[in-house]
Task: inverse folding
DNA sequence: CTGAAAGCGCTTACAG
DNA sequence: CTGAAAGCGCTTACAG
């Protein structure tokens, strides 16, 4: 029942050595410490339930042992999956992870970035295609390594990141739909300022044009949420009743959309087919199960963290970009 | 282009004052600093893009400004919702949050707890009804405040926590089903070692017995995941074809279960009704939309963080428990 | 094989 | 109104 946490000093006193010696054995830099001293120190540390003060450690070493992950919203299954992967990988390297919900809000982004800098995070995973390069610049000025996942910040295309080829996904998606006999395809894209929105739209347009089925008035804009999907689908239903397929550029919108279609008495896939993008965990549970573009979300998270750790350790001379290929996952909504 | 982060010393030198003075103005404890000095210091700090080193600050103040949240799996919508709420509330108080995925693994739990202690977290939100009190004891020994959410650790029932009355939920749920004409109800409970599993089962049993519809062989055990729901549902379908309802003790299992029922050609709600528990965000999007027991998940998260902060600030003399009442949310699966 | 000492960047009484 | 000094709990050359 000691009033406060034991320190190295306490152990040192009890063992009759200096705290330098204690530090060495506790950090396994004890090549040259006698077996007896080491055993004694270890025993005392154990008995005292000693837990090192890593804040003090950080102050000397200038490393915090924590990384940050900045994402739009942990509640979105896509991001929680990434966060999970990052944390799993980080944990293997003995890093903790601080998460920050940005909500696509630049002010929040900057505020959090500064907080992470002040906490001396060793690196950050950036999963928010902020319209503003400000936060990234702050990181750079403070020499904190970062890697993008899924989406990058404008002007930082060549920095380290892990992506899944977005343009290819929607490009191939349209081809698949065409092969399935679909000719009247509406496309719903997300937040215009995001690189992934643009890329997915580009892929759609290119493919649809090549096949001669592109119609400008069948392209709709919404945001990447269930609510966004519901809202825009009402509009799609109201404005064009001749379409045979809705291709949503993420699963969350597709899920919201299917709900709206159902409420409107439109059957999926009989009356209209629905295609998603991402393949979040829940998509296979929908009724009908959602046909979508699969991305290896978990793997992307793992790789991003490994990449980050390499940067932190200085094992990478230059920026590195990892690209995955998306795959069409056929289920029942087409 | 300075090689390393500017410190208070740098500002002090540039302003021709001591770092004590700089510290005071930057921390707004500047009642007695002349307007001129303050302005000068602020201007220099701004020009240098000074970001305080909060690690150093922590070492002096013995507070880290971060809290930890320990949960089973951030990928589970229930927990990501809590995590989101906690982070929102924490952010209002200028706390960062570190999240840890426990996976119901005691070894991980203990490891993470020590890590959080070593990082000097100011408090922790504990959302994992660990079978073992070990982690909680470590927290206690190190005088780190914690509050439970949703589930508590055995033997710590009287510690601060935020709960939704679990027994009441399933108790009322059965009554509701009975009122709907259901008499042959199978109940699927989760991990036996968790307090919420026991409580929900108790509520079910009590209610079913009162109504004279309890059948021991209609109680099934699985775990709180989609996969767990799928697996157990196969068994339910195989062993009893006379049941008219399956009451799952969380939504994730119900969602998995509906998938299995569909695959088996069993229609919901026509052939068998399905009832969930939790009301996670996705439940309303299912087809049929899931009838479930609503819990105010987000609010619970917010309250837990506020409670924690009060503990941290020493504004609470004793432990405090907040209880919410669950509500039946009628949708279409019954 | 081990200790004394300086330093990491702050905060906080205490003086003046 | 402001500065000098000690201290937070570690790590890390450097001596011996």
Result:
């Amino acid at each position: 029942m000691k009033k406060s946490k034991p320190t190295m000093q306490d152990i040192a006193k009890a063992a009759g050595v200096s705290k330098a010696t204690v530090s060495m054995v506790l950090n396994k830099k004890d090549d040259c410490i006698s077996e007896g001293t080491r055993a004694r120190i270890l025993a005392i540390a154990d008995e005292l339930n000693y837990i090192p003060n890593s804040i003090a450690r950080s102050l000397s070493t200038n490393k915090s042992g924590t990384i940050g992950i900045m994402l739009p919203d942990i509640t979105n299954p896509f991001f929680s999956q990434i966060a999970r992967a990052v944390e799993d990988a980080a944990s293997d390297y003995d890093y903790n992870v601080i998460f920050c919900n940005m909500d696509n809000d630049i002010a929040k982004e900057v505020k959090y970035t500064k907080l992470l800098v002040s906490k001396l995070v060793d690196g950050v995973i950036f999963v928010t295609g902020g319209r503003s390069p400000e936060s990234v610049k702050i990181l750079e000025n403070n020499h904190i390594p970062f890697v993008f996942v899924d989406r990058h910040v404008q002007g930082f295309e060549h920095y380290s990141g892990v992506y899944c080829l977005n343009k290819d996904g929607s490009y191939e998606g349209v081809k698949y739909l065409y092969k399935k006999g679909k000719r009247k395809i509406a496309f719903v894209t997300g937040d215009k300022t995001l690189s992934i929105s643009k890329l997915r739209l580009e892929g759609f347009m290119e493919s649809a044009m090549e096949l001669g089925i592109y119609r400008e008035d069948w392209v709709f804009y919404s945001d990447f949420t269930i609510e966004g999907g519901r809202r825009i689908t009402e509009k799609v239903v109201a404005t064009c009743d001749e379409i045979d397929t809705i291709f949503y550029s993420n699963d969350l919108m597709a899920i919201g959309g299917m709900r709206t279609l159902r409420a409107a008495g439109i059957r999926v896939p009989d009356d209209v087919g629905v295609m998603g993008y991402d393949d979040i965990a829940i998509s296979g549970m929908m009724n009908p199960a959602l046909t979508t573009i699969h991305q290896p979300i978990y793997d992307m998270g793992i790789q991003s963290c490994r990449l980050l750790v390499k940067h932190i350790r200085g094992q990478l001379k230059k920026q590195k970009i990892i690209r995955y290929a998306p795959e069409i996952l056929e289920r029942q909504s087409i």
